[in-house]
Amino acid sequence: MSATTETLVDFDEVLTRYEPALGLEVHVELSTATKMFCGCSTAFGAEPNTQVCPTCLGLPGSMPAVNRGGVEAAIRIGLALNCEIAEWCRFARKNYFYPDMPKNFQTSQYDEPIAFEGYMDVEVDGETFRVGIERAHMEEDTGKSTHVGTTGRIQGADYSLVDYNRAGIPLIEIVTKPITGAGAKAPEVARAYVQQLRELIVALGVSEARMDQGNLRADVNLSLAPIGAEKLGTRTETKNVNSFRSVERAVRFEMSRHAGILDAGGSILQETRHFHEDSGITTSGREKSDAEDYRYFPEPDLVPVAPSREWVEELRGTLPENPTAKRARLQAEWGFTDLEMRDTVGAGALGLVEETIALGSAPQAARKWWLGELARRANDTGAEISELGVSPADVAAVQKLVDAGTLNDKLARQVFDGLLAGEGTPDEIIAARGLGIVSDDGALSAAVDKAIEANPDVAQKIRDGKVAAAGALIGSVMKEMRGQADAGKVRELILAKLT
Amino acid sequence: MSIDLTRATAAQMADALAAGETTSVALTQAALDRIAATDGDAEAGIHAFLHVDAEGALAQAAASDARRAAGEPLSALDGVPVAVKDVLATTGLPTTCGSKILEGWVPPYDATVVKRLKDAGLPILGKTNMDEFAMGSSTEHSAYGPTRNPWDTTRIPGGSGGGSAAAVAAFQAPLALGTDTGGSIRQPGSVTGTVGVKPTYGAVSRYGLVAMANSLDQVGPVTRTVLDSALLQELIGGHDPLDSTSVVEPLPSLVDAAKQGAAGDLTGVKVGVITELGGDGYQAGVRARFTEALDKLVAAGAEVVEVSCPSFVHALAAYYLVMPCEASSNLARFDAMRYGLRVMPEGNDSPSAEAVMRATRDAGFGDEVKRRIILGTYALSSGYYDAYYGTAQKVRTLIQRDFEAAFASVDVLVSPTAPTTAFKLGEKLDDPLAMYLNDLATIPANLAGVPGMSLPAGLAEEDGLPVGFQILAPQLADDRLYRVGAALEAALEKEWGGPLLDRAPEVATLTSTEGAL
Fold it and tell me: pTM of the entire structure?
């Protein structure tokens, strides 16, 4: 049960003996206005159990009706993942008992997914891995259970509450084929796949795709096989992996854990595991020990989904640019070096940089803030760059102020401090913190006079023509102005007074 | 000429309302009085109703009368009272499905058919008794006690819709809604001397019908005449966006077909007698009345031929796989978490949700329901699915092909509705297989989605009890049932000198304090 009893093998050592195989199951919550099988709203954050009706509560006698918008989104995701789109497919019932499942079966798809046999090219450090997509299918979300008690989990809870607002919200589950051959890059490939999949989903406009809100949920399957073995090893399925970074860490941890068990001659238990964000470990997760038999059968209350080829082609026409081609285009447009581009993609900042540039920032300025400043801060706190609470609009606004001479880089960093602390908009932070460059010539002129008076030797050197010495006076003035001055302007003033 | 307020047909009631000879309130009050006098309870009386809504029905009746007085648009059956099987969701009225597990549950919504009844101005008298979750052929599996057959209160009224059929046969209601998954409208019709129709699958919305087996269930009319069934089916039928499986195409006019048939001419109509649904397993009196009915069809000008549907012999076996599979999944939602019964397990101070589910389902479901849940769960299990559910679906396809082949050469198919007349209460309760055999002739229509009607063919000589005659038609050709059914009804009533129900013994009336014997 506890990870402390497990032997973990050093990551590099794992690779000397084993080849990892990855599999990723990603659930994407669609941002359709209404649920998959009824007309209830899908808006996030409403009072519990206010966005419900007989159908999504599974009341006796209620029946589902398919949301065409959900099917459309599923087809577009399938097409963007280079999948075949089924000419005819059905929903199926996945039967199991759980209090957050109103009907005690989930309306899903089983052996007839809407999309199948596709791929996505994933870039890691300039190298491209082709990840095979086995299927993308439609299903409904469950309600949300809250276990109230000291543990916060079902074990040891005093009682549990269920909110059915989420029940019936459309989900697309995207399942990869086993990803082999990634070797030491397996953790990065897993992360990059989820990251790029998210970018694709956002570009398609079918989901908010926010991992922190559970719009995008990744389950990480991992197995190890001795190098050269033909058969894949036994896999574990790690759930509760709620950030890109966690995807990478979960793969890394499971590789080390599997290797420890296999080295000791043990065998891997095929099981569900829970990832713990704080400690970076996984623990055996499934409360139910019984082998699951979901007793799938076709949903008799729904007619088959048979998208016409005309409709599929029409939807193909609405797809966003292919991500690989798009990266090449953006790199050329922005004039980024290969390394700069790789860093941007690797930090999960491509979309953020793109949006910031679209809002008027120069490409290098946008890159500087996101990669130089914000990526470093995200790294310090272990957060995802997209989850820092700083938006492309914020960065563009700060850069605009820099361009206008209202802020310099040093002050801009203080504005980011304020943004990260949730102090409001850039303008509010500048006002509250008293940032912003002083352009009042009177105050600046007084500070320059004071600096000249305090440094007669330096002033004399400048009068003698050693203009480079101005730097020392500028420093002195900036100090006096507590940094809130435009260095170029200070220099102009000094030279005007002394030469 | 004034009508008898309880014995008149729905069509006669509608005419009388239109002529201003009576009011909806008068008709509804008469029905309520009749129910009060004859229905009793689980111990005595017909016990067709689980819940009577006198106040609501009278309010709806008054509203209908007011609309009529104001000259507002009215439906064909506006003001004619109706009873509703307790498997259909009704706002503000309990909906138990004959089960303890739903005791006290009042739905927050109306089934589409109920909404259509309300919109059409039919006062709803109450909810009728049924086998628990429509599982049975005798109404003895109701958790609230059996319904008794008005022809002989020691006998079953059929099932699962015994309550609706008995209410209509006992003149408690001129009209009722039933549901038919394997014969639950037609077989009760057969043993109570009433008319029951299972429409084409999808012709009537299932939204709000608490499903037993979604791919087989269908809502339909229970009445005393073929024309009344036509009027009621036209009123409740038609596409419903809330039921994805409901058909979009409109059916041909059923009322016109019934009126055409009542004129008595079936020239050019080809009738096929299904070889596999007759013979040794059928009671002699049932066979005799069936054969005589065929003679009436021939006399009306129809051509009668014999047709073989060889796959029908596998229908019962396929049905008892498909139905429990779907039912086991449908009934999973009754888990004490959100509505209905909640039983706390004994000797457990802080039970888990799973333990509460188990205790509730154990206490809340009857034996027949548990039997089918077990059958279905087993048949859907990993490793058995193909052999059971998969094979049953193939048999369904074969039965559909048999129907297609038969309907290529005949317009309608006919058979006795049930192998026997009404049996005694308790007679088959401990023998599930004997009980299941009652539906032998009705099940093929459900498996293939074709429409079927049962109408009275007379009384069996050996026991004096009603015999049912079944007519089956191709999908969406429900009108053929009504044309042939109305012609047969007209010919038989001419011979009988009136409706068969006129020969039924008078139902005993009860006082409020003592049960009748």
Answer: 0.88
* CB-CB neighbours of A364 under 10 Å: 13
Closest residue to B209, CB basis, from A61, A102, A103 = A61
Q: In this structure, is residue B77 part of a structural domain?
A: yes
Q: What is the CA radius of gyration of chain A?
A: 28
Please answer whether residues B207 and B111 qualify as being in contact, where contact means their C-beta atoms are separated by less than 8 angstroms: yes
Residue corresponding to tokens 């999504």: A56
Residues 6+ apart with CB under 8 A from B310: B276, B402
- Look at B464 and A373; give whichever has higher pLDDT: B464
Q: Does any CB of chain A come closer than 8 Å to the CB of residue B218?
A: no
Give the containing element (helix H, strand E) for A421.
none
> b/e string for B421-444 if b means 16 or more Cβ within 10 A?
bbbebebbbeeeeebbbbbbbbbb
User: Long-range contacts: B474-477, Cβ < 8 Å, 24+?
Assistant: B474/B403, B474/B407, B474/B450, B475/B200, B475/B201, B475/B448, B475/B449, B475/B450, B475/B451, B476/B200, B476/B203, B476/B247, B476/B249, B476/B251, B477/B200, B477/B252, B477/B451
Q: Quick check: B139 and B167 in contact, CB under 8 A? A: no
Is B512 one of the annotated active-site residues of the chain? no
**How many structural domains are present in chain B?**
1
What structural domains and CATH numbers belong to chain A? Answer: 3-315 (no CATH), 321-433 (no CATH), 441-498 (1.10.10)
Domain that holds residue B115: 10-263+451-503
B378 touches chain A (CB under 8 A): no
Mean pLDDT computed over A402-431: 86
In the chain, the amino acid numbered B395 is V
- Contact of A425 with chain B, judged by CB distance below 8 Å, is answered with no
pLDDT at A289 over 50: no
Is the separation of the CB atoms in B455 and B489 below 8 Å? yes
Q: For position B206, what pLDDT does the model report? A: 98
Cα–Cα distance measured from residue A158 to residue B154, given in angstroms and rounded to the nearest whole number: 53
> Is the CB of B329 less than 8 angstroms away from the CB of A95?
yes
Question: Which residues, 6+ apart, have CB-to-CB distance to B242 below 8 Å?
Answer: A63, A65, B112, B205, B207
Question: Which runs of consecutive H residues, i.e. helices, occur in B181-272?
Answer: 186-192, 226-236, 254-262
Residue B200, class by beta-carbon neighbours within 10 Å (0-12 exposed, 13-18 middle, 19+ buried)? buried
In angstroms, rounded to a whole number, what is the distance separating the alpha carbons of residues A438 and B484?
A: 98
Answer whether A63 sits within 8 Å of B335, measured CB to CB: no
Q: pLDDT tens, A45-86?
A: 899 999 999 999 999 999 999 999 999 999 999 999 999 999
Task: Kindly state whether residue B426 falls inside one of the protein's structural domains.
Answer: no
Residues 6+ apart with CB under 8 A from B69: none
Binding-face residues of B in 318-347 toward A, CB within 8 A? 325-326, 328-329, 332-335, 337-339
Phi, psi for A398 (deg, rounded to 5): -65, -45
Residue B91 contacts A where some CB pair is shorter than 8 Å: no
pLDDT in tens, A442-487: 788 888 888 888 888 888 888 888 888 888 888 888 888 877 777 7
CATH number, domain at B89?
3.90.1300.10
Residues in chain B: 517
Alpha-carbon span B485 to B500, nearest angstrom: 14
Q: Is the dihedral of CA B496, B501, B504, B506 positive or negative?
A: negative
Residue B181 to residue B192: CA distance in whole angstroms: 19
Q: Does B244 contact A303 at a Cβ distance shorter than 8 Å? A: yes
Of B24, B64, B75, B85, the active-site residue reads: B85
Q: Given pLDDT bands bounded at 50, 70 and 90, which one contains residue A286?
A: low
Chain B partners within 8 Å of A105 (Cβ): 329, 332
- CA B112 to chain CA centroid, Å, is 17
Residue B428 lies in a domain: no
d(CA B273, CA B294): 9
